[in-house]
Amino acid sequence: MADLTEVTSAEGGLTATGRDALLREFDEQKTTANFAVYLMVVVIAGYAAITVINTLVSSMTARRREFGLQRLAGSTRGQVLRMAGSEAAIPAPAASRWAPSPCSGSWYRSASSASGRCCPPGPRGSPRRRPR
Predict the structure, then answer these.
(1) Dihedral angle at the C-alpha atoms of 87, 92, 95, 98, nearest 10 degrees?
(2) Residues 126, 132: Cα–Cα separation, whole Å
């Protein structure tokens, strides 16, 4: 290491460091990359939530006449709201259960090939490399 330090000191801007500096830099870059990935996930989830809300609003607006007819037939406002809420609540558990299944295969393959585990490591659960 001393010979390498002498060679690099003659060149401007070059330094020779040990493995500890490399691992520290790797951990910092990995933390930044994980933050960027999680930020993208939050943005995508927010966009999906806005899309779902817009779809529900447009479908309720399209059914406005139907709700008016139910009110004319004698249903109370609470009954109409409960009916609409139950119609929206019935497919929600199925959608939340089955929506992740198409991507789980590729998620498992990429996680197992990268880390040898079935789930990708997160920023808190990632194993830190310790210098030997």
Answers:
(1) -120
(2) 18
| 34 in Cβ contact with 123 (< 8 Å) | yes
Residue recorded with tokens 């691992």: 23
Q: For residue 106, is it left (φ>0), alpha (ψ between -120 and 50) or beta?
A: alpha
Q: Which amino acid is at 15?
A: T
C-alpha angle 119-30-4 in degrees, rounded to nearest 5 = 130
Using CB atoms within 10 Å of the CB of residue 107, give its burial: 0 to 12 exposed, 13 to 18 middle, 19+ buried: middle
* Of residues 119, 97, 116, the one with CA closest to residue 108: 119
Say if CB 113 and CB 119 are below 8 A apart. no
d(CA 11, CA 21): 20
Please write the tens of the pLDDT for every residue from 67-104: 999 999 999 999 999 998 888 888 777 777 777 776 66
Tens digits of per-residue pLDDT, 12-31? 777 777 788 888 888 888 88
